[in-house]
């Protein structure tokens, strides 16, 4: 039996449907390509934004505010206002955090040059972190004066590396606080160890240390919180350096050190700061060379002087934290904030919220304890200043759950902290 051919009108409908389908497919492909180009154009994203932060887009002639989640394309500028900061995750790998009153431009190098991220620091200070593994798109590049570009990579097996870049009237200082950086510009190579710094504004060919390395701050700890009293005296201390004439100590009201209340030189590796009133203070130290000239300052630390005895200084794990399944044999990190001075802390891990049934106690001066092999079960923990009577650094104990079948806990009830 023969099948009749469709009439002319039916063929026309079929052709229209085919054309429409091809057109839609073409439109979808075009939209997909547009999205791909837009995503490829993103060079960085904002992970955290605090205070007034703005961006100047390449296509705009004005600054506009942004929030966490904002994206940046090659050639965009970012700036932070007073008491503001922002953390930027670079698409090429690593991140930078801009301190207050800082201006940078983010770019992306062309593929022949490696395709990594480029950061041009116009003013202020940026702190960065690079992972141990090689960045897939190429190294992070710092752009200095006259277009000079210095590439930063992490030495193998050196671990994640933390660094800081500061614009000064004389140049652009690059310093390392942890790890080791490998610097390259053309055929020039340099290695920058933790505690050392280099002026990289004019590249590496003429880069020299302008002074001694910076001292490592010791006490108070990072973001220490101290109760205010009229006679309060806060001892500041740092690691001494060999072959230096002395140290320059600065204390200010802001991270940019534009409102300084202490700017003095001392011979030893400590200084007593007398806060005039409650509030936030920031301190840093630099070493003096034989001519009495200060070098690069160490990383600034904040001290919060509060009207009441600080409580709620526990940092991690958060209240109600549940470790991942099967992680009973893994490390659990307990951390808390400093109260200043050189106190001894007492970490208590117990079965009850009142911490009256401790299963583990550790005492010492660090602000962090790592416990291995915490058996499955429900726990509560808190930290005290080891005085008589003990002073709690929390308003209520935090709950911690290690999933799995119930089991025995650590045998020793009292173990010393690592020094």
Automatic annotation (TrEMBL):
Which InterPro entries would you find in this protein's record?
Ig-like_fold (IPR013783)
This protein's superkingdom?
Bacteria
Report what the protein is called: Lipoprotein
Q: Tell me which species this is from.
A: Corallococcus coralloides (strain ATCC 25202 / DSM 2259 / NBRC 100086 / M2)
